[in-house]
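Worked Example 4.2. Consider the chain below.
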Amino acid sequence: MNMNNMQPIFILPEGSNRNTGRDAQRSNISAAIAVAETVRTTLGPKGMDKMLVDNLGDIIITNDGVTILEEMQVNHPAAKMLVEVSKTQEQEVGDGTTTAVVLAGELLKQADDLLEQNIHPTVIANGYRIASLEALKILESFADKIKINDKEMLKKIAITAMTGKSAEIARENLAQMIVDAIGSITEVEDGNIFIDRDSLKIEKRTGGSVDDSELIQGIVIDKERVHSDMPRRLENAKILLLDAALEVKETESDTQIRITSPQQLQAFLEEEEKMLKTMVNKVIASGANVIFCEKGIDDTIQHLFSRKNIFAARRVKRSDMEKLSKATGAKIVNKVEDVTPEDLGFAGLVEQKKIGGENMTFVEKCKHPKSVTLLIRGGTEHVIDEIERAVIDSIGDLISVIKNEGKIVAGGGSPEIEVSKQLLKYSHKLKGREQLAVKGFARALESIPRTLAENAGLDPIDIIVALKAKHEEKNGHDYGLSVFDGEVKNMKNLGIIEPLMTKVQAINSATEAAIMILRIDDVISSGDSKQPRMPPQGMGGAGMPGMEM
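Applying the procedure from the previous section yields the following structure tokens:
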């Protein structure tokens, strides 16, 4: 049979697109680089902010990499991988999202140059794997250790994370509050460190300034007392946490009660009131004077509590109940009849305050709270939202340092330059084309200090040259770019410190994403499956027979 005379057929539904070979690689790499370029200008203390406006007109002003990428609603499949890089960085460390994305974009840019030299993607991918493993060894070699209870060093790490963000104006106070908060929720059991990030609650309220933000040694909940006659403020509070309704229970099945006389109605009402009073007496007998109920509280019980000078709040969220339990030491009780004095927690003060026009309940002055609240204040919603993002970054950095045995590196692009320098030396030991990929990886790492310089309005070439010269000196690995004066200085002496884990995760995530994108040589996007299939027809060029997919 003459193959040239065969009529080619479609193997994909009508409307499908297929991009193969070098075209597919160019498309994917270009999309990923475009994403990296979007967040590139936000990197560092001198980075700029982005204004994001959604289809409802809501505005977000931020320079937080993961927030920008999530709000952009990226559609290109390869570009989405870089969004996933930022999300992974955020989940694992809490900071360094922009670094990870910029690095991934630069790795792909270097790979594109190698592809133009006809180096196979698999060779590049293998070289990148070799380089990333060596880079992590190099990072470990010059990382320092701090004591995890060294509050001054932890404060410097928190300040570094907030520098360049809206929170910078109050970074000293915020950093101190974050360090104290992390200290409260850190638990050590059998030599192992446990930090439950959810135990640190962040509440935001507009009004005042950032300096008015405060750390509450306890919990703040957006609930108020259920009855106006209840006390607004109680000292030495004995707290009961109740996961049961303080109401007469409804039957599970439909039930009818026939009342044929006023005496029967009176008896029914008296019995109901007796049940409610029994509940109240049980609570009073326990000694509780503050009740947080996850469910409803009957009007009669509200009145009886108010007469006994008891503070009560209802419909409290389960997450808040758990935090209250950690802060006060109270146990969450499921049945009113099971309440005992041993189930109660303690707080030095329970008070209802109006913050930002809303009533909130402050449970504070707890003895040894394992859950605390950071109350963030600011002039506008946009300001406090951005401060919250900066605070979350700082919290993530501190937790990663503590969990990683206190390992830190200097900031200002110094670790990237040092790793790049040593990787270039290491590449000379390799044979084959992987050497070129390792060199490309080393050049990609230089993009971080180069971007810091560009965003500060400095000449990146001069800065890179000066950094490399310093790093050739003995013990020069801590020298980075001080963007405020444009000088190359010892970053640790300046107190610019970052967690080792931030750099490790950024390199791992960026490398994996770059390799995955590089290995794609065929992109098939499906058409509308609801459309009718067209009969086989010419595809243009020298077609090949195929089978339906």
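The chain has a mean pLDDT of 82. Residues 17-73+81-145+409-522 form a domain with the GROEL; domain 1 fold (CATH 1.10.560.10). Compare this with Example 4.1 before moving on.
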